[in-house]
Amino acid sequence: MNGQNKAFKAMVEDRPGIFMHLKKIYPKIKKGQKDGILVICGAEQSGKSELMLRLIYSLEPKVTADNICFFGKDYRKKISELEKSIIVMDEAGTSLFSREAMGEEARKIIKKLMVCGYRHLLHILILPDYLSLDNKVRHQAERDRLIGIIRIVNYGKFVTYARNKVMLINKQNSFGQVKPSSRGYFTFSNTEPGFIELRKAYRKKERKYKDNYMTEDIKEEKVPIKKEKELAIRFHKENGLTYKRIAELLNVTRQTVSKWCKDEVKSKTN
Question: Given its phi and psi angles, is residue 242 left (phi above 0), alpha (psi -120 to 50 degrees) or beta?
Fold first, then answer.
């Protein structure tokens, strides 16, 4: 058994699912015969990035942290540079909110994502909530571009939804009534030098991103209160998200979201 298969065996349960499907699809991407989008979602600190690192290392042991982007402009640039490879948009929720509501940068990213199929890339988008993702991206499942969703349910444990399940989720705008395609887990015991190096480089890049964000070096990505209110109303009305989930996404209180949405209803009835 080669190192790539060992990495998969160590990472997930040996059962059919998205991971086995990816093992079949990725060689086609490397040959320039296909491209695809995979979403990894889950709560903050649930292990999304850990799972992503194991996944990309399993598919492409020579991959580096250069293929992982945190800022929209870096992601757009990297799409133009890479071909027949993997590209990751970490913290994608900050750039691909529903209905392109985050402004010009989001529109540019989504447009680039929609037309870059000829680059034959596997796009991995990491975000807290799949249902907050822009509808244009979500409905790529109907074009066979959105391969599936991996949803972290507990640290180290996940469920997967294949393309047919994703279409049901899109239709119902909820995970509630949709049975997962498979379940699995990933371990934390990978000691291969290549993987350790990848994780170390990723952590360094992640720290730089968070330091920049916390010190407001990228002030243009800061959302004004008016825009937050518009986002909250759209998320509740068009995506059916709860006040609590919207509050978590926008970093405001549940009471604030409730007031915004109720005031909007009152203004429409007056």
Answer: beta
Q: Give the C-alpha distances (Å, rounded to integers) separating 174 from 200, 239, 240.
A: 36, 9, 8
Quote the pTM value: 0.74
Strands 36-41 and 121-127: parallel
Alpha helices in the chain (DSSP H): 3-11, 18-30, 48-59, 72-81, 104-115, 135-138, 163-172, 193-214, 225-238, 243-250, 254-269
C-beta separation of 121 from 81 below 8 A: no
Beta bridge partners of residue 97, listed in sequence order = 133
Q: Looking up tokens 């293929």, which residue turns up?
A: 67
Beta bridge partners of 86: 122
The tens place of each residue's pLDDT in the chain, 270 residues long, gives 344 444 444 444 435 567 778 888 999 999 999 999 999 998 888 889 989 998 999 899 999 999 999 888 899 999 999 999 999 998 765 665 544 445 677 778 888 888 888 899 999 999 888 988 878 788 887 777 888 999 998 888 899 999 899 999 999 999 988 999 888 887 766 678 899 999 999 999 988 877 765 554 444 444 455 677 887 887 777 667 788 878 777 778 888 889 898 888 888 776
| The pair of three-digit structure tokens given for residue 201, joined into one six-digit string | 């480089």
Greatest distance between any 2 Cα atoms in the chain: 69
Kindly state the DSSP code that residue 62 receives in the 8-state scheme: T
Domain spans, the chain:
3-214, 223-269
- Domain 3-214 carries which CATH code? 3.40.50.300
Alpha carbon distance 162, 167 (integer Å): 9
